Amino acid sequence: MLNRKMEKLLTRCIKEHKENVYRLAYSYVKNKEDALDIVQDSIYKAMTHIEGLKDPEAVKSWFYRIVVNTALDFLRRNKKVRTMDHETIEIYASGAEDDYANFDLNRTLEELPEKYRSVIVLRYFEDMKIDEVAAVLGENVNTVKTRLYQALRVMRTKMDDESSKEIKSNEQ
C-alpha cells in the first residue's frame, strides 16, 4: 500500500516537473535525444527503486538527484565525442544577430568543473533554493554555498579575461 502511494507521488512529481527535468538533462548533454534518453532512464531508475525513497516530502529532490547522476554517468560513458543538435548549430551559425555574451557565458559554464557547473545549473537555471540544491546533490548547505561562490568567482574571472583579450586584440 505504501509503495503504491509512493509511486503515485513520483508519477505526479514527474508530470509536474517534466519540462524542468528535461532542461536539466539537456544542460548536461546539450543534445535533445540524449536528454530524452537520460529522462527516460531516470524515470525507469526511480520507478524501480521507489522503495529507496523513505521520505515522501523528498520525492522531488530524490528524483532530481537521479537525473543529475544519470546525466553525469552518461557524460562519463560518452566522453569521447560531444555533438550539437541542429538547433544549437543554427543559433551559433545564423549570424543574424551577435550573441557573444551568451556564447561566452555558455562556454565559460562548459569549462567549469562538474561540481561547480551542477550548483550553477540547479541554482540559476532550475531556480532552486540553496537547500534544494544541497538535497539534490547530496551535499551539505555550506558546501553548496561555498561551491556557488567559487563557481561565480571562476566564471567572472574567465569572462573578464576573455573581455580584456578581446579589447587588447581590437586595439592593435
TrEMBL record:
One of its GO terms (biological process) is DNA-templated transcription initiation. Coiled coil: none annotated. GO terms for molecular function: DNA binding; sigma factor activity. Residues 14-80 form the RNA polymerase sigma-70 region domain. The keyword Transcription applies. Keywords: Sigma factor, Transcription, Transcription regulation. Residues 105-153 form the RNA polymerase sigma factor 70 region 4 type domain. Pfam families: Sigma70_r2 (PF04542), Sigma70_r4_2 (PF08281). CDD domains: Sigma70_r4. The keyword Transcription applies. InterPro entries: RNA_pol_sigma-70-like, RNA_pol_sigma-70_dom, RNA_pol_sigma70_r2, RNA_pol_sigma70_r4_t2, RNA_pol_sigma_r2, RNA_pol_sigma_r3/r4-like, WH-like_DNA-bd_sf. It comes from the Bacteria. Belongs to the sigma-70 factor family. ECF subfamily. This is RNA polymerase sigma factor SigV. The lineage of its organism: Bacteria, Bacillati, Bacillota, Bacilli, Bacillales.
